[in-house]
Design goal:
The chain is 40% helix and 19% strand. It has 146 residues and is of the alpha/beta class. The longest helix has 16 residues, at 14-29. It is globular.
Length: 146
């Protein structure tokens, strides 16, 4: 399972990128697995809005509410990632961290770090996100064919 962590400040475009990227990965999977992409939505509050939007768009979503996955909910994140792997067996896990998270710490501190393929994308700076997308395309051979 390949894991991508999307991070950025509130309103920086994480969910917009996530919607488009998840749809792209699902279209690209062409039935290789039953559920090619699972989204793990993290909200600092007790309830979320983004998870409802994602679910309405027919994405498979798991949630971690009331904490940040880079610190207070790190153990819950590890348990949820294991649950997702066992329950869905996706090719991709897209994690949308809360706007307060430090995306580089979300999995690097985790005991899971040595066992998963990780690529971090921050959406707070457009140029960095574009470079990360290019890197992802080259690393996993996802360049669109013309």
């Amino acid at each position: 399972m390949k894991i991508i962590v999307l991070g950025g400040f509130l309103g920086s475009g994480k969910t917009t990128v996530l919607l488009q990227f998840a749809a792209y990965l699902i279209a690209r999977s062409a039935g290789k697995t039953e559920i090619p992409v699972v989204i793990l939505e993290n909200e600092i509050s007790e309830a979320g809005v983004d998870n409802q939007l994602l679910t309405q768009n027919d994405f498979t979503v798991e949630n971690i509410f009331s904490g940040c996955i880079c610190c207070t909910s790190a153990a819950q994140m590890e348990d949820t990632i294991r649950l997702i792997e066992e329950k869905y067996h996706p090719e991709w896990l897209l994690i949308e961290a809360t706007g307060m998270a430090s995306p580089d710490l979300c999995l690097m501190r985790s005991a899971l770090a040595p066992t998963v393929s990780i690529l971090l994308i921050a959406t707070t700076m457009g140029m960095f996100a574009a470079l990360a997308w290019l890197m992802l395309s080259m690393v996993w051979g996802m360049m669109p064919s013309s």
